[in-house]
Amino acid sequence: MKQQIALVLGATGGIGGAMAKTLMQRGWQVRALHRRADQMAAASRGSGIVWRQGDAMQEQDVVAAAAGAAIIVHGVNPPGYRNWAQLVMPMIENSIAAARASGARIILPGTVYNYGTDAFPDLRETSPQNPSTRKGAIRVQMERRLRQAAQDGVRSLVVRAGDFFGPHLANSWFSQGMVKPGRPVTAVTYPGQRGIGHQWAYLPDMAETMMQLIEREQSLAAFDTFHMNGHWDADGTEMVAAIGRVAGQPGMKVKRFPWWLLPLASPFVTVFRELREVSYLWRQPLRLDNRRLLQLLGSEPHTELDVALEATLAGMGCLKK
């Protein structure tokens, strides 16, 4: 049987890296596009990834890298939230061009930014997408473009989940706001409030969910969307308590996130400006409904919370050896 090929854009990131690992475990050949492919190949020797020289902003590079691929994982985002408006849409257009040329299906990790408060608290695949943020509007535009492309034969799949956590994930609330990488956990800074639920997604679980959907290609629509339940923290205390258990610090101190600082720092720090924009996601509960996913898969891939957090904190260098 001929080995299937996947192109992963953003293989050095959290979801891209998790997808690359899962695909290789299933026997796929994984290609990754990078502007310094030789350096990445040397640094990751033995990983099994085939690095291709190129830039996700250059259509010809993406098209060439996707030749013969069955799927394109679009896991690439501008670093540090910079220049979203200028970079995000050209990159998805390049993936669409590559998918059209190769016949591949595009796999897009979705976010809850697409939804405004009119769709809260229970979010289904059919819920209205009326975002209240600039980033949310861009995400809606991305998915709208994929839906349009499906009418011309370009297939795509969107899998939406809550806030990511997992080993080797740099750009997330978990690693940027709650726990300090490289240090033993002695306290947690929590952005939400007690009594308000919050939804989380463990990256390896999301990658496995995507993989199982890919393996059911014949059951998917040309443009298809699924929601994950992931880990639901019903009152905003379960994630913090689990971090304490895993770190061997039960009852550790919980600090409040300094929301008051963001308006002051936002004009000077891009990340703070972007965090401030999505602060509403911590002030009210919202939950992705995964019933459609369960109808197709039967069950959702799910790692027990303490096990997932142990792998996450170990990967971040936060557990004592």
Automatic annotation (TrEMBL):
Lineage top rank: taxon: Bacteria
NAD-dependent epimerase/dehydratase domain boundaries: 6-219
Chain segments annotated as transmembrane: none
SUPFAM superfamilies listed in its UniProt record: NAD(P)-binding Rossmann-fold domains
PANTHER family per the UniProt record, alphabetical: NAD(P)-BINDING DOMAIN-CONTAINING PROTEIN-RELATED, PROTEIN YEEZ
Name of the protein described by the UniProt record: SDR family NAD(P)-dependent oxidoreductase
